[in-house]
Amino acid sequence: MKTRKVVIIGAGHVGSHVALGLIQSGEADDIVLIDILKEKAAAQALDLDDCVSGALCGHDAVIRAGEYEELNDADIMVVAFGRSRKPGETRLDMFDDTIRMANEVIGHLKQVDFKGIMISISNPADIICEYIRRQMNWQTNRCFCTGTSLETYRLLRVLSAATGYSRRSIQAMCMGEHGNSSFIVWSRIFINGTPFLQMRENTPRLAALNLDDLQEQVKRAGDIEVDGKGCTEFGIANVAVMLIKAIFHDQKLIWPCSTALNGEYGQKDVAAGVPCVIGKNGLEQILEVELDESEKEKFAKSCDIIRGFLERAESVK
Q1: Dihedral sign, CA of 308, 311, 313, 317?
Q2: Are residues 254 and 171 in contact, defined by beta-carbon separation less than 8 angstroms?
Q3: How many Cα neighbours within 13 Å face the side chain of 16?
Q4: d(CA 183, CA 262)
Q5: Taking Cα atoms as reference points, which of 12, 129, 126, 2 lies closest to residue 77?
Q6: How far apart are CA 52 and CA 250, in angstroms?
Q7: What does the DSSP 8-state code read for residue 140?
Q8: Beta carbons of 82 and 123 less than 8 angstroms apart
Q9: Which residues, 6 or more positions from 84, have their beta carbon under 8 angstroms from its beta carbon?
């Protein structure tokens, strides 16, 4: 049987939790950590290896530190390098630092022959992923970003708490930038198939909910976590494992991810979070859902912000 190999670039909070999730779920056989701090990567790998025999682990995965040559036969690369966001910072405030790190990583990537699928997490997420893809001239299907996945996770939590319905009964998503300009697509939210906005018309307790307040709760969630503990790690690591599972099992998972747009939603020369189909070939399809006029305006504004930073990225050395 073919060994499922995942290489994670960045052995910090997020990268190490992605590795842990893969070990516990049994979704990878061979996991390699790469970090500029080689001793840290080796220590993280050893610590993670200590848990392989535990009751929660899916099977006996191999976990170790390595070099970029490990990408030559890897199925999936997870990009998780970069520093944590500081209290008061937006993800866009991390732009200059992360672009410089990206240029260093790109230099290594050009020395190897990676043929697999890249899932990027590093912030500002939409910009870093698309910048790497352009520099490497990789196809869009095999190079995408978690995008508004984390906002969507938070939206499901916020909606479940506000409505009393199980998260598993709610179909909802956020679109746009993984950042402050992301937005909830209210017109596409369903409670077990019933439109949420329609339910609000007939259910007083739902009608009493303040949609702007719910949007603010989703937007502020990451800030609260960073202010309280200095980083976010568990939710986004779970997103990465979910996407890796969708690829390895060819699930055709429909989920919001960030990808290069070529006319979809009227946008070009930009990458942003949109509903996509994730399967064995990576990001296999962009789904164009109907948006109302307000949502179209919000998406265009968000894309303009991302596009402007992508143009700036070319000048950072």
Answers
A1: negative
A2: no
A3: 16
A4: 21
A5: 129
A6: 26
A7: G
A8: yes
A9: 12, 13, 226, 230, 231
d(CA 317, CA 310): 14
Q: How far apart are CA 249 and CA 238, in angstroms?
A: 16
Q: Which amino acid is at 107?
A: G
Which secondary structure element, helix H or strand E, spans residue 278, and what is its range?
Answer: strand 268-279
- Catalytic residue numbers read 178
Identify residue 198 by its one-letter amino acid code.
Q
User: Any idea how long the chain is?
Assistant: 317
For the residues of 227-264, what is the DSSP string, one character each? HHHS---HHHHHHHHHHHHHHHTT--EEEEEEEEEESG
Assign 3-state DSSP to the chain and report helix, strand, coil percentages, each to 5.
50, 20, 30
CA distance 4 to 114: 14
Instruction: List strand residue ranges (DSSP E) for 87-154, in order.
Output: 117-120, 143-145
Over residues 249-279, the pLDDT tens digits come to: 999 999 999 999 999 999 999 999 999 999 9
For residues 301 and 195, what is the distance between their CA atoms, to the nearest angstrom? 26
Is pTM beyond 0.90? Reply is: yes
For residue range 117-166, list pLDDT tens digits in order. Answer: 999 999 899 999 999 999 999 999 999 999 999 999 999 999 999 999 99
Q: Which residues of 282-305 are buried (b: 16+ CB within 10 A; e: fewer)?
A: bbeebeeeebeeebeebbeebbeb
pLDDT in tens, 197-227: 999 999 999 999 999 999 999 999 988 888 8
* Burial class for 39, CB neighbours closer than 10 Å (0-12, 13-18, 19+): exposed
Q: CB 91: neighbour CB atoms within 10 A?
A: 20
